[in-house]
Design goal:
The chain has about 400 residues and is mainly α. Helix content is about 75%, strand content about 0%. It has 3 domains: about 55 residues, no CATH class; about 60 residues; about 260 residues, Up-down Bundle (Growth Hormone, Chain: A), CATH 1.20.1250. The protein contains 16 helices and no strands.
Length: about 400
C-alpha cells in the first residue's frame, strides 16, 4: 500500500472516533488514544496501526483466563521439537513435488520431521509442564472438535491457498479483483456469527458441527466446476456461488466449534484449550498446503502432457514447458513461435492448472465431509455447560 494512503485512511477514522468518545464521559480517555493513532497514520503503515489497535483492545477488554495456582514453566523442549518437526516435514513435502521422494535429502527431511514430532508426543506425555497436555484429549468433545478442526481447516487453508493463483494466472483477474473475490465469504461470516453462536444452545454441538462441514464440502465442490473463463466479469456465475456456499458452511461451523472446545474444559483450562485448537488449525493449513501442492503438481503434470499434444507442440517445446512445471500456470511460453501456437500452448497450460485445481478442491470437499463424519462420531449431541474451577 502506498505510504500516502495510510494517513488518508486512518486520520479521518481515528479523529472521528476520538470526537465521538468526547461525548461519552466514561470513554474520554479513549479520545486521546484515537487522536494519537490518527497522528501515527502519517508515519506508520495501515497494517501496523491496526495491529497496535488489536493489541490495545486485547490488553484492555479481553479478560485473563490463566490459572494463578499453576506455576508451570515454559515447555522449551516441546516448542523446539514442534518447530523442527513441522519445518522439516513441510520442507520435505514441498521439495518432493520438484525432486521426487526418492532423493535422499527429501526422504531424510520427511523422516527426521516425522521422528521429531513422534518424540514431541513422547516428551509431552511425560513432562509436568507440557505445552500440549495430552490428558485434555480424554474429553470426547475436545478430541472430536480438534479432529474436525484438523480436517476442515486443512481443506480451507489448503484449498483457498491455490484459489488466487487460479484467478490471477488462469482466469485473468487483477490483484485487486482476486483479493476481493473472497469478500462475500468474510461478509457472510461477519453477519452470521452472532446467529451461529446460538446454535449450540438451541440444538447442541453435534448438529451444527455435522451440517456446517457438509455445506462447506458443497462449496468446495462448486469451486471445481469453472473451467478457463474470460476475466473477472465471469465471477458472479462461476466462483461467487462457491464462495457463498462455503461462507455459509463455515459460518454454521466456526462459532459452535469454538463453543464446543471452550465448554469441554474447565474455566482454568480454557486458555490452553483455545490455544491448542488454534494451533491445530494453523498446523492443518500448513501441512495441507504442502500435501495439496503435491496433488496439484501431479495432476498438472499428467494433464499438461496430454493438452500439449492436443495443441500440436513439438517435442522440444514440450520439453521446455515441462522443465518449468514447478511454476505451474506461471510457465513461460517459448519465444519465436507462431502466435496461434502460442495461444494454444498458453491455453493448454491453463487447462492443466485447472485440472490440478479441481483435484485440490475435490480433495478439500472430501476432507470437509470426513470432518463432518468425525463430528457425528465423537461430538456429544447435548450441549454441555462449561465446568467450573475447583474451589
Amino acid at each position: 500500500m502506498p505510504n500516502w494512503l495510510s494517513p488518508v485512511l486512518l486520520f479521518p477514522f481515528f479523529l472521528g472516533a476520538g470526537f465521538m468518545m468526547l461525548y461519552r464521559s466514561r470513554f474520554r480517555w479513549l479520545a486521546i488514544v484515537f487522536a494519537l493513532l490518527a497522528c501515527l497514520g502519517f508515519f506508520w503503515d495501515v497494517l501496523e496501526v491496526l495491529a497496535l489497535i488489536v493489541m490495545m483492545i486485547s490488553l484492555w477488554f479481553v479478560p485473563e483466563s490463566r490459572d494463578d495456582t499453576d506455576k508451570k514453566k515454559l515447555d522449551w523442549l516441546g516448542a523446539w521439537l514442534t518447530a523442527v518437526g513441522l519445518g522439516l516435514l513441510v520442507y520435505g513435502l514441498i521439495e518432493s513435488s520438484r525432486l521426487g521422494f526418492g532423493v535422499p535429502v527429501v526422504f531424510a527431511t520427511i523422516f527426521a520431521g516425522a521422528l521429531s514430532l513422534a518424540v514431541f508426543l513422547l516428551v509431552e506425555a511425560r513432562l509436568p509442564h507440557a505445552m500440549l497436555p495430552l490428558a485434555l484429549f480424554r474429553s470426547r468433545n475436545f478430541s472430536g472438535a480438534n479432529l474436525l478442526t484438523l480436517l476442515l481447516y486443512a481443506a480451507l487453508g489448503g484449498g483457498l491457498y491455490f484459489f488466487p493463483l487460479n484467478l490471477i494466472q488462469v482466469q485473468g483477474y487483477g490483484a485487486t479483483a482476486a483479493g476481493a473475490a473472497l469478500l462475500p465469504f468474510i461478509a457472510i461470516m461477519f453477519a452470521g456469527s452472532r446467529w451461529a453462536g446460538t446454535l449450540v444452545d438451541r440444538f447442541g454441538p453435534k448438529k451444527p458441527l455435522v451440517i456446517g462441514p457438509v455445506i462447506a464440502a458443497c462449496g468446495f465442490a462448486l469451486f471445481a466446476l469453472p473451467g478457463v473463463e474470460e476475466g473477472a466479469g465471469s465471477y458472479w456465475r462461476t466462483f461467487f456461488p462457491a464462495v457463498v456456499v462455503l461462507g455459509i458452511g463455515m459460518t454454521v461451523t466456526v462459532a459452535p466449534l469454538t463453543t464446543t472446545v471452550m465448554n469441554s474444559m474447565s474455566r482454568d483450562q480454557a486458555g490452553v484449550a483455545s490455544g491448542i485448537n488454534n494451533a491445530v488449525s494453523r498446523v492443518a493449513a500448513l501441512l495441507a498446503i504442502a500435501v495439496l501442492g503435491l496433488i496439484l503438481a501431479w495432476a498438472f503434470d499428467a494433464s499438461l502432457q496430454q493438452h500439449l499434444q492436443d495443441a500440436g507442440a513439438s517435442a522440444q517445446v514440450v520439453a521446455q514447458l515441462q522443465a518449468q512445471r514447478d511454476k505451474l500456470a506461471g510457465a513461460e511460453i517459448p519465444q519465436g513461435l507462431d502466435p496461434a501456437l502460442v495461444a494454444a500452448l498458453k491455453h493448454a497450460v491453463q487447462l492443466a492448472f485447472v485440472a490440478g485445481f479441481r483435484w485440490v478442491m475435490l480433495v478439500s470437499a472430501a476432507l470437509a465431509l470426513v470432518s463432518a463424519l468425525a463430528a457425528f462420531v465423537w461430538i456429544e449431541g447435548k450441549p454441555a455447560a462449561a465446568a467450573q474451577p475447583a474451589s
